Amino acid sequence: MVEKKYYTIEEILAFLGGRGLTVGIIGSYTREKLIHPIIYLNSKSVHACEASSDSPAAIAVGHCFLSAHWDLGADIISVVDKLILSKPVAIKIRQLVKRKMLIGEPEIFSWEYQGNVFDTIPEDFKDLIRPRPRSEELDKKLEYFMLTPSAATLGLENLLLTKMDFDFLKNHFITQTIATELQAKELTKTSKTNQRSKAAQKSGRLSGKTRQEMAQEKKEKLKPALLKIAQSNEGRSANFIAGRAAAMKIIPDSQVRQTARYIEDDDVLKKYLKKNK
Q1: What's the pLDDT score for residue 148?
Q2: Are 127 and 54 in contact (CB under 8 A)?
Q3: Where does residue 7 rank: exposed (0-12), middle (13-18), buried (19+ CB within 10 A)?
Q4: What pLDDT was estimated at residue 27?
Q5: 259 with 222: CB under 8 angstroms?
Q6: Alpha helix (H) ranges present in the chain?
Q7: Predicted local confidence at residue 62, as pLDDT
């Protein structure tokens, strides 16, 4: 399976939106430089320009369509802010696309250099037009791409995140969500435990009984059954009597020792125990 290098905002929100990620958070993380979005120029109409040897300005040599991944550097912060505030209306940009800011080789197609292809060039560039047919040599000299007025717009669909930024967001939001869920479960568990404890305490207070009194009352309810076992096993030890009670499911196994002590201390039950010589 081929691994993707870039992800759209729509793809990222579809994956992490349910875990708390929003477009606003993407903007905030961009401002804080935790992530660095890039712009995808999707077949944008541009005037291709080469650097002038006798002028600091770029020289337009033809019109074409450009597809490329564009790293705006620090300017991405203002672009992302505007895109998020536009919600989701496209915004106009005026930057001249510098080739050195493009990631990898750009895709250039539908080259034209004759007729009215330069009609939309800004007035201050009118004297810097030198139409030329496309060639391999010219392609190497192209240093700038000037977006035409109809193409100088960006929307959220042009905003991409690299795999590295996507992995950062996944690790942050998935880990954060798991921690929150675990914390919520722990709080729920603690709350239920507290509620049961309070209910038990309240029950004891309402009946006016202490814990010791309630435990003693429970033992007294067991006494008739213990007495029958003691009478039918006269001369046996308290541990034996308690063990028989556990085997008969009268008491749980965990209460055998506690019950044996009760038998030894009870004036009626201890009469049936083995006499120590």
Answers
A1: 92
A2: no
A3: middle
A4: 92
A5: yes
A6: 9-16, 23-31, 76-86, 136-141, 163-207, 211-232, 238-247, 256-265
A7: 95
Per-residue pLDDT averaged across 85-100, rounded? 82
Amino acid at 194: N
pTM, rounded to two decimals: 0.61
At 233, the pLDDT band (50, 70, 90 cuts) reads confident
Locate tokens 């060639």: which residue?
Answer: 135
Q: What is the predicted pLDDT for the residue at 253?
A: 85
CA-to-CA distance for 196 and 192, rounded, in angstroms?
A: 6
Q: Whose structure tokens read 């002028």?
A: 55
Closest among 169, 136, 161 to 7, alpha carbons compared: 161
147 pLDDT more than 50: yes
Question: Cβ of 182: how many Cβ atoms within 10 Å?
Answer: 10
The pLDDT score that the predictor gives to residue 206 is 45
What is the separation of C-alpha 252 from the centre of its chain, rounded to a whole number of angstroms? 47
Question: What region, left, alpha or beta, does residue 246 occupy, with left being phi > 0 and alpha being psi -120 to 50 degrees?
Answer: alpha
Q: Is the pLDDT of residue 88 over 90?
A: no
Helix (H, G, I), strand (E, B) or coil at 101: helix
Measured between alpha carbons, how far is 6 from 104 in angstroms, rounded to an integer? 13
The Cα angle at residue 108 between residues 148 and 75, in degrees rounded to 5:
55
Residue 23, CB-side half-sphere exposure with 13 Å CA sphere:
18
CA distances from 69 to 5, 13, 48, 95 (A): 11, 21, 16, 15
pLDDT category of residue 30 using cuts at 50, 70 and 90: very high
Taking every pair of C-alpha atoms in the chain, what is the biggest distance, in angstroms? Answer: 127
